[in-house]
Amino acid sequence: MRKPFAITLDPGSSLVNHTGSWRTLRPQYVDRLPPCNHACPAGENIQGWLALAESGDYEGAWRKLVEENPLPAVMGRVCYHPCESACNRAELDAAVGINSIERFLGDEAIRRGWGLAKPEFSSGKRVLVVGAGPSGLSAAYHLARLGHEVEIHEAGPLAGGMMRFGIPKYRLPREILDLEIRRILSLKVKLALNAKVANVEQAMKEGRFDAAFLAVGAHIGKRAYIPAGASAKILDAISLLRSMEGEEKPMLGRRVVVYGGGNTALDVARTAKRLGAEEALIVYRRTREKMPAHDFELEEALQEGVLVKWLSTIRQAEAGSITVEKMTLDAKGFPQPTGELETLAADSVVLALGQDVDLSLLNDIPQVEIKDGVVRVDPGMMTGHPGIFAGGDMVPSERTVTVAVGHGKKAARHIDAWLTGKRYGKEKGELAPFARLNPWYYADAPKTVRPLLDIVRRQSTFDEVVGGLDEKSALFEARRCLSCGNCFECDNCYGVCPDNAVIKLGPGRRYQFNYDYCKGCGLCAAECPCGAIEMVPEEI
Amino acid sequence: MAYQPVKYYQTGTFTVGNRLLPPEIRTVQANLRRTNSLNSGHRACQGCGEALGARYAIDAAMSATANQLVAVNATGCLEVFSTPYPETSWQIPWIHSLFGNAAAVATGVAAALKAKNRKDVRVIAQGGDGGTTDIGFGCLSGMFERNDDVLYICYDNEAYMNTGVQRSSATPPAARTATTSAGNVFSQGKNLPLLAMAHGIPYVATATIAELHDLEAKVKRAMELRGARYLHIFVSCPLGWGHEPDASVRVARLAKESGLFPVYEAEHGEVVSVSKIRRRLPVTDYLKPQRRFAHLFSPVEKTDIIARIQAIADRNIEKYRLVDA
User: For chain B, what is the domain count?
Assistant: First the structure.
């Protein structure tokens, strides 16, 4: 080609200039562990199902949720949502209402009749689950999905364990519980009721079970020695709550005193109110700050007119009255007696001092180690006896429904590994803290508050206190999720790169770096809202 | 307002795109088929705000004109880093002549197109603050006065960066450059958007690289109009300002949020809309990440100078009503 004067080269594109060679830092896409997922005792992929709910795919969200937890409608009512306590959004305005969205999905599944697919594969292994509480049901569900044949032996007349016999109706309506249990049983899980297991080894031999998961719960109310006159009426909280499920409602009188400071004490006091008690008084030996019960439950109880006598112990109980002693906290925060006494009217006293486990089914198995009234298990939930696993309230842990469900899942996965000769282990990713986010990009959006039942109806009926969200507010709430540590395809990296070195792969497929041209400036990482890009030193 | 932020779509319109937004209100930059008018392989520094701003603006203009666009470039960083002989990063018809005559050349291109009756082909002139506020100002003022059918875009990085960070008439007070080692003097400065408005031309707007939706809406609006139009884009310069390359967007955002760079648009000399400050910040938040202002903070904090800079921001906030009362 003849070129004009002083022109010696053909025009070319700058694409021949691979500016990637300038780079000293290399951007990489990462998936970090969102704090909600990290905090969930049931190991739910909360960020994952919220991402589906955000786009209105509620069924997809529900299916993602039940991969880890078979009881979303129950969870959405009774879980103490540690996920929300960990939520990064709290640093912006208020935590995402994860629990209310979970309930919405659970209720939506019931309303629309979404079912679970039957397991396609059969391992030929048989597993015995002892106890149909949250832990046992969760284990049975996961074992069934893994292809094992599961039989639950439940000592009580109905499945549900503490969800039925411990949690009052106004927090968990029984039809919701029944529906979610029925869904688990639809996976060909056999349930034998009124079938107390007296000896595990024998039951395993008789039923030709290859492994067992024990989750008998903690149903024996702890007693405290209180000098009492012959006609004083003293009950334990757990028996009282259980009798609420029977035909005959317990007779408590006009003035009910509850002794203890846990959630069960509140449940009893609120139940007493609903049964017609004029006065429900909680006697607790320490202060409100030290109370183990959750603050929102105390708040709801106080709204309903429950009274609390702080820094007090019961010294004596007589027919129609009790004597309490004032306490004071010492330097270490322990309550110490003051000798100051007071007499209060009380028709009945309910002890809510915690529960013990009935471990009689393990009496003849020496390998199983029992300490402090609970069964020791290894990190894989197995007891000292090979093939016998345990979880829920009967092992050392926080006693909540969610923890129990988590135990059931974890045990199921380890039982599966044990039965098939594999190892089960999951690598937990690096956490995504608030400092890794670029919060500028998130729109201001205050939390949606769930409706509360009218106070008069709360004092006299067992109707559910906390309402659910409608579709619009559930969607709004889901969209408040910051998607911490996980790309949600906002196109920011694709947009802010001055060198067009980010390749957009299309919906659902995220992005890729073009390292031929990426100069390593780090703008993509700095402007990524959710912290899903990290800069790592380039190896030279 | 040129555009309304969408609320509650997780990030609304603050991010470049958003899978939950309807495609028609996503940005041009979010599109898989954006033109990438300024392509990869250019030699701008890491994290260059001007390279980013130029692609944002020209891609938006291409989208608004069905790709019928000619760009005239003044001398400056943008010209030098994009077209080292014989390579070019431009994927559009592009012409460079001299430092100071971009507006005049653009006028000529527009006249030629008019002569050929090509109403569909639109003309953009672009340059840095040096080529616009100093060297090219005479030609630019003439272009405004004649109301030639050209959109002139100034990428303002507040000094002559290409030649080694020398002061321009757009350099802000107290900023250190190679020629103002003790910090630029306080003076009236040369506020080009206001000078453009004084010509009464159809459209004048300011924008930053930190607000893409706003920037694209302004380019689109400008291309809907005929006659002389002026767009002033605030682009950060990691090299000349002395901030980290990954802070380019953040520094631009801080300039706007502190009130030092008011973002607004004007038609026929009157301000018609302003982009409000979302979270008002003190000017020190903007000054501190930049080494060109380091002398204000050490060895001793020069509170009097900082107070004067804050007064400029406060005046802008009041004048343009950048914060809702």
Answer: 1
